[in-house]
Amino acid sequence: MIDIEKDVFAYLLAGGKGERLYPLTKERAKPAVPFGGKFRIIDFTLSNCVNSGIRRIAVATQYKSASLRRHLALAWNFLNVRFNEYVVDVPPQQIFGERWYLGTADAVYQNLYFVEQEKPKLVIILSGDHVYKMDYKDMIYTHLKNDADITIATIVIDKERAGAFGIMETTQEGRIINFKEKPKDPPTLKDDPTKCLASMGVYLFKPNVLIELLTHDAEISTSSHDFGKDVIPYAIHHGYKVFSHQFRNKDGSYGYFQDVGTIDAYYCANMDLLSPHPKIDVFDRSWPIYTHSRQYPPCKITEGELDGTLIESKVENSIIGEGSIISGATIRNSVIFYDVKVKAGSIIEDSIIFGEVKIGRNVKIKRAIIDKHVEIPDGVEIGYNPEIDKKYFYVTTSNIIVLERGYKFPRKLMEEQYGKSQ
User: Which EC class is the enzyme in (predicted)?
Assistant: First the structure.
């Protein structure tokens, strides 16, 4: 039998650059990107751990980690260290020379001393840049039932998306017999040629197997030291018992799993929270998403003065964070984080506004993401003039506009678009 709190140790990989999420990752790691009006992306995986009973977690940090490490210190300090519960961040240890982590497998290899020190019966490897709610106990039971060396959490996806995932073939019993990382010609499900079985990047190992495989991988100079590209295929082809655990909800339906690795995917995942029945319910108190709670007052939605006239605020189908003040503005289908100030006459639609943003009077924003510490002058329009948007802002292929953290509106833009200087 397994006592999950005592016998399972988690490595959470949070060192990715997040280049496809630029400019949101210009000054922060991908797992530290804000999400859903209150959270950081990493909070979902960490909450999965805590809600599943896993209370010993090492977070491997690397690129632009200051924001992430600060968040871990503020939000994840509530575990009881007296009972050996903790979330600890582990930057590259440089045990084998002055180098950073070379890949996901190397990040764990450089920190194998946790396994030697804690002596867990199982080790789970996780990623800090996915949005999902999963009870890892179900995966652990699958692992034990199969007496597996490795168990991989999997989802069923459309064949067209296979190029972004590790894709596998299994026997009828669920044993994985083939694994290809981001294949161009992916193997499909036997009963549905339009679907593939994809890895979630969640791996459960017997500790001795993990040590054995990572030690071997570290000795191969041509390896990229990646679980999906190197370690898992090697294990399958050398006789290790590797099984799939399909991620499903309690009712048997497929679980929601979102890699928010691009601006467009990130935007859509946030917008989904506004639907009457979102794919991931952050309001579900039976599976709370833990995070840092700031000492702000409640949000305030009030009248605002414009040209001597009081204008009522209108908020439709939106999330408004704590400490935000909406004064005579209209907010539709938008996610507003904490301490955002919006003045009278402004209209925000289909947008995501990060914390500590100030929006002036008569501003119009549509299909945009505004990062922290941006002050938007009176009368600015974002999302209404494609030519100017592409000239001065970052715009995705689906025309989502992004203003980076602390963006300053250049005088030339103000004169060109609005015929005035600021």
Answer: transferase
Residues 6+ apart with CB under 8 A from 63: 15, 16, 17, 18, 29
Peptide bond into 34 cis (omega under 30): no
Q: Residue 420 above 70 pLDDT?
A: no
Tens of pLDDT, residues 80-128:
999 999 999 988 766 665 667 778 999 999 899 999 999 999 999 999 9
Question: Is residue 416 part of an annotated ligand binding site?
Answer: no
Check if the beta carbon of residue 316 is closer than 8 Å to that of residue 331: yes
Angle ∠(51,53,56) on CA atoms, nearest 5? 110
Q: Is 396 exposed, middle or buried (0-12, 13-18, 19+ CB in 10 A)?
A: middle
Which domains are delineated in the chain? 4-272 (3.90.550.10), 300-418 (2.160.10.10)
Residue 89 CB neighbours (<10 A)? 18
Instruction: Please tell me the total number of residues recorded for the chain in this structure.
Output: 422
Q: Is 234 annotated as a binding residue?
A: no
Is residue 181 part of an annotated ligand binding site?
yes
Tokens, residue 249: 């909800």
- 345 known ligand binder: no
